[in-house]
Sequence to fold (815 residues):
Amino acid sequence: MELYYSFAIITITNVLLLLITHAMDTLNPSHTLRHTTGDTLISSGGTFELGFFNPDNSNKWYVGVWYKRIAPKTVVWVANRDNPLPDSSATLTLTPPGRLLLLSAANATIWSTNISNILHNPVAQLLDSGNLVVRDGIGLIVWQSFDFPTDTLLPGMKLGWNYATGREAYMTSAKNGGDPASGDFTFRCDPTGYPQNVLKNGGSVQYKSGPWNGLGFSGGQNLKRNNLFKFGVVMTKAEVYYHYELLNRSVITRFQLSESGVAQRFVWNDEKQEWAMYHTVQVDGCDMYNSCGAHGSCNADVVLGCACLERFVPKDPVEWSRQEWRNGCVRSKPLNCKSGDVFLKYSGIKLPDTQLSWFNASLSLRECNQVCSKNCSCMAYASLDISRGQNGCLLWFGDLVNIRDMSPGPGHDIYIRLAASESRGKKRQVVIVTLCLMVGVILVCLSLLLSFQMRKRMNHQSSEIVLGLDDQPDESDNKELELPQFDLSIIVKATNDFSMDNKLGEGGFGPVYKGVLDEGQEIAVKRMSKTSHQGVDEFKNEVICIAKLQHRNLVKLLGWCVQGTEKMLVYEYMTNKSLDLILFNPTRSLLLDWPRRFNIINGIARGLMYLHQDSRLRVIHRDLKASNILLDCDMNPKISDFGLARTFGGNETGGNTSRVVGTYGYMSPEYAVDGMFSVKSDVFSFGVIVLEIVSGKRNRGFVHSDHRLNLLGHAWMLYEEDRSIELVEPCAKKSCDISEVTRSIHVGLLCVQQHPEDRPSMSSVVMMLSNGGALPEAKHPGFFTGREILKSETSVSTTTSSSTNAITISLVEAR
Fold:
């Protein structure tokens, strides 16, 4: 993200003119900036500087603007990005007509502002905003660098169209970190139909934000109202543009389009002297443009990523069953405009692509319905602006594409045209639902009566919830669970009454708090939430598994607390918290050099081998993921969260369930689809974690500019092409042992193979990681493609799996 450049200095042959109160450097026709070494820079007086630089000490030189007091230098604008200077001799001058010229040593024009008008007393200035401007004699700006962004958008810049000048301002990625020349990706505000932000790779659309709705972009998951900056889309007859402005002038932030096509925002952390990632525009595979075809909706939280909208069916059922979704869906019943159609409300979705749309800001939603109903080509309508209720009218014509499920967020409401017969079917459904609700209310009342009778009994027997462990093979096992029972008052005091300042995070079980006991020992308290889907069984599971298992790579349970409705588990505190918080953080991941990453991989493998083979009870974790790997002060890994684990005795190695639990992206194919779990399910999850540790990328939401594969598919492709080393995260490459890296990737791919019988046991994994013997060839992974088939494979799943740090899924019925 940051560009590491060698910077030369500029000299000004005459005394600089102090023109405004900011002590802002200026350049007039009597002044010239020559490229020599050891002289002063032209500066905005506060934040930015203008000068010559050459990337990676190459022989190519450029004129650019960068932050004045930030190291390493971060370039935000380049004048001659596509026409570098051939050597270090150059001149930047302002001619009397008012043109800025960049001349080579041979006086060849390398770059200019191309101002056609002749200006009187022109002056060039670098403003505090980072904007390089040319003013005429009365102070009017006639040219500015902000009209010509490179790969960075600064506060005050505009992305969009100026209809008066016919000029579009848009971002273009750099070729790479060492070459600022224009790359393949562009990011722009497209006013076609109705404004939305669009990312393209050449002429191919990669991402569309959805239309602007007055509060944000319909599909903008990460762009939320905040106290750092405000943002919006401005639409007038003269121009349409997206912009953002700072709310806090002390904040330094930039929005950048990376060379790989990822739009991302950074905020400068002055205390740590580093750029921190604030958010990325693309979050997951569902942000790929039109991933599910017409009338298809993408949901990144399910294994099968695409589904037809309600009352739509796959256009090609055979292709759809193969998870080839590009042809999308069609209405289950054809439209008949002359006989009358109806409009069904769809809620909580990203609105479709507005390229073929029409809008009127003065119409109400009711008037919008009337306009759309009278036009047989109108396929849907929605409110234009939801910032102050439902205002304006937005109509769609043609197929509805680029839809995604935005739940549990607010999403947007849209009304889609359907056959009139669908309305009658809906009325029947309302009657059925009403009857079901009535029956449900009666059942709920009965259950409340029963629960009231049982509540007193449960309160008296609260401690027996833990110690009455019916899963134990004999009575002697209960005696071995003699863990300390903490009094609630002790935990309340240790956590400062569960202060938000002490909150470490939250999972499916509930929130986790840091605490300090009176004797100074640091603890982590997992407090069961009243709304948690996990309950007594998971609480018992956690105690059974942790109390009876002792291993250096398993988190240590210190005690428990059951008092009234409160149920809590007390653990040793892990200084570095969970693996995902470091691994997927652009700045904190720098702490993980390759030796540490390899140590984490080996530690997880040894802990999992103990669970599967060496412990007294065979344990299948069922929710192994990066967020459930905790790191101590020395970055040693410890497996945690056994609430969903299953224990077995004897030679049992697996089972079947109708209640699929775990986190999508880490779940094996046979478990996610059929509910079949085994030790090989954990092996699959381990393989995903290995590939994430090596690459520093989440399996879920992995984006690559050259293809649409997820992380598993990308790793498999590199492995097939003998390019596995390219998977390694750049910050770990410098310290990596190539043989260890390629071996780890190979082992990871063996673990994520499609069929469980092909996957190695964890004892084999530990052995393969620790010695240099030959490894078997890996077969294709499960859930490994994005939405296209690799090479000659024709029957491979094309699901975009995910490995986000999401709340564990624990109530999904297996199909």
Remarks:
- The chain is about 20% helix and 30% strand.
